[in-house]
Every structure is written in structure tokens, then in C-alpha cells.
Amino acid sequence: MKENEINTLFKKELIRLNEKFTSQEDFFKKVSKWLTKKGYVKDTFYQAIYHREQESPTGLHTPTFDVAIPHTDPEYVYEAFIAVIRPEQPISFREMGNLQGATEPQLLFVIGFKESKDQLSILQNLMKMFQDQKVMDFYLRSNDTEEIYTTINEYLRTAAYKA
């Protein structure tokens, strides 16, 4: 993933902090509606991402706190993106690779791919970031969208440069 690709994927308008969700389904409905309205995804995105999450959970335990990286196939996406959502309260997600395991993500990275080949690189860079306790703690504490945007962007650009 190149630096210019990072800049087109991740934008300030794609950060939502302290959002209220009553359930995982409510989360997917609201986020899908928001992304559809902004022109990033097709109307069918909600059904696709919700179904994919049921089949292949994306909740992860990290050294700092639980996260989730829901995503679906490129055919449901108009424009590639990374949306960062911090819910007011953690949302229950099943654990990736362990259908019986549960996670309570405090930060969710919803990803829309335009091409399947981009998926691995983006996920690898996010996984590196999830291991950085200082950066992850910052995301939980900060209420400044600009600071969060700058920090994530710098981290992903640095990871892309090292790749």
C-alpha cells in the first residue's frame, strides 16, 4: 500500500466518536446508512457486511483493548475507505478465528475495498498498529477528530513506507 493510497482511503469525515449503538445489528445499519449517504457504498452494503460478519467474525483481542475490522467484498463498495468508529459503549462481536469466542470492541475499523488485492496489505498495517499500546490508548482517550486523523494517517503512512 502506497502513501497516496492511504490518503485516499482514510479521511477525517470517516471518523465517528462516542456513537450510540444498541447492538451489532444496529451498528451495521447505522454505519451502512451513513456510508451510503456519503457515497462510499452501495445500498446492498448493509446486508453484505452483516452477513459476512456472521460467517467470518472480525472481533480481535489486542494488547490494549478489543477491536473489530468488519469488511466485505469489493462489489458492494463505490469508493475504497477506512472508517474509524468509537462507540459510546463496546459492542459485542464474535472473535475472529474462534466462533465461540466473544469480544467487546471499543474501536471499530470498517473497511471498504475496491480490489481484493488491497485487503491483505491494509489489514497487515492495521494489525501492526493494534500492537502499539501507546497509539491505541491515545485513540480511546482523544476526543479530537483532527488528532486522531493525523495520528492514524501518520502511522499507516509509516507502515506503508516500511512495507
From TrEMBL:
Database matches in Gene3D superfamilies: Mannitol-specific EII, Chain A
Q: Which residues form the PTS EIIA type-2 domain?
A: 8-155
Q: Report keywords, A-Z.
A: Sugar transport, Transport
Tell me which PROSITE patterns the record gives.
Answer: PTS_EIIA_TYPE_2 (PS51094)
Hydrolase recorded as keyword: no
According to UniProt, the name of this protein is PTS sugar transporter subunit IIA
- The record lists the organism as Oceanobacillus sojae
